[in-house]
Design goal:
Layout (H helix, E strand, L loop, with lengths): L1 H8 L35 E3 L9 E4 L3 E9 L2 E5 L3 E5 L7 E5 L2 E8 L3 E5 L5 E5 L3 E2 L6 E7 L5 E6 L1 H4 L4 E5 L2 H6 L2 E3 L5 E14 L2 E10 L2 E10 L5 E5 L2 E8 L3 E8 L3
Antiparallel strand pairs: 1-3, 2-20, 3-15, 4-7, 4-14, 5-6, 6-9, 7-8, 8-11, 9-10, 11-12, 12-13, 15-16, 16-17, 18-19, 19-20
């Protein structure tokens, strides 16, 4: 029996759609495919930091006020509630998928799709009689069509199966309004990068970290400035900005001058 069930999982091209049991928003797909995702691609962008001078801006603690370089932007999708639904499987047999709430981050970029994978300690896919059907390196989460920007639920257990095994489920109209791809302040991959991050206001001081990266090599330097709740002008590496307000959770500031 186990051999038969394993065979079913190894034939993604014969998958069929079934609705999920998590909520009415999981509607059946007309077709399921096991199309290959294509090769891994890396599309770097060169970003020149060019903010408006004198315009009030705000960031939360841990976020960057300055980002410049050549890198691939980081992205994430928020899962607001724990999910428990059925993924269309082979030979009319759906299998259960669980994803815990939280952010899932851009994990890999392929020619056709970008993968957003949940850590496997926060997600699971199983099959009757087999238990878990994913191993390290497999993906449970969502994938983004790089051409159409359409999102789908995803289980890619190609590593576990030893062959291309990709299972997808379309989002309902309701889900399309809930699940959105958003940029993060931390790049996905870096060639060269300079950042200034706000680390918080505590001990009557403002705390920042300047980081310069070249590939996997990174150097950081911390900066602290006294702040008495009055507008204060500070500078880091020739970049001058005015602090308008600060707390342990947020910084309000405006740029005065940038290093050329």
């Amino acid at each position: 029996m186990k051999k038969i069930l394993l065979l079913l999982l190894l034939i993604p091209n014969l998958s069929f759609a079934f609705g999920g049991n998590q909520s009415p928003s999981h509607t059946p797909d007309k077709n399921q495919t096991g199309n290959e995702k294509g090769k891994i691609v890396e599309i770097f962008k060169e970003i020149k930091f060019n903010p408006s001078i004198g315009e009030p801006m705000s960031v939360e603690t841990g976020e960057s006020i300055f980002t410049e370089g050549t890198f691939i932007e980081g992205k994430k999708i928020n899962i607001p509630l724990d999910l428990d639904f059925m993924m269309p499987g082979a030979f009319f047999i759906p299998f259960p998928v669980e994803i815990q709430s939280g952010d899932i981050y851009l994990t890999e970029i392929y020619l056709k799709y970008s993968y957003f994978c949940s850590p496997l300690n926060k997600a699971n896919a199983s099959f009757p009689g087999l238990g878990s059907v994913v191993v390290s390196g497999d993906c449970i989460g969502m994938r983004l069509n790089n051409s159409t920007s359409e999102l789908e639920w995803l289980v890619d257990n190609s590593i576990r199966n030893g062959m291309t095994s990709i299972w997808t489920k379309s989002l309902s109209q309701e889900e399309r309004e809930i699940y959105k791809v958003k940029k993060t302040n931390r790049p996905f991959k870096v060639r060269n990068l300079k950042t200034i991050e706000f680390d918080g206001y505590y001990g009557e001081q403002l705390h920042f970290t300047f980081t310069e990266s070249q590939g996997s090599q990174k150097e950081s330097k911390e900066y602290t400035f006294d702040y008495d709740k009055k507008p204060t002008i500070v500078g880091i590496k020739g970049n001058i900005f005015k602090i308008l307000n600060a707390s342990n959770i947020e910084l309000v500031y405006e740029w005065v001058k940038l290093r050329k």
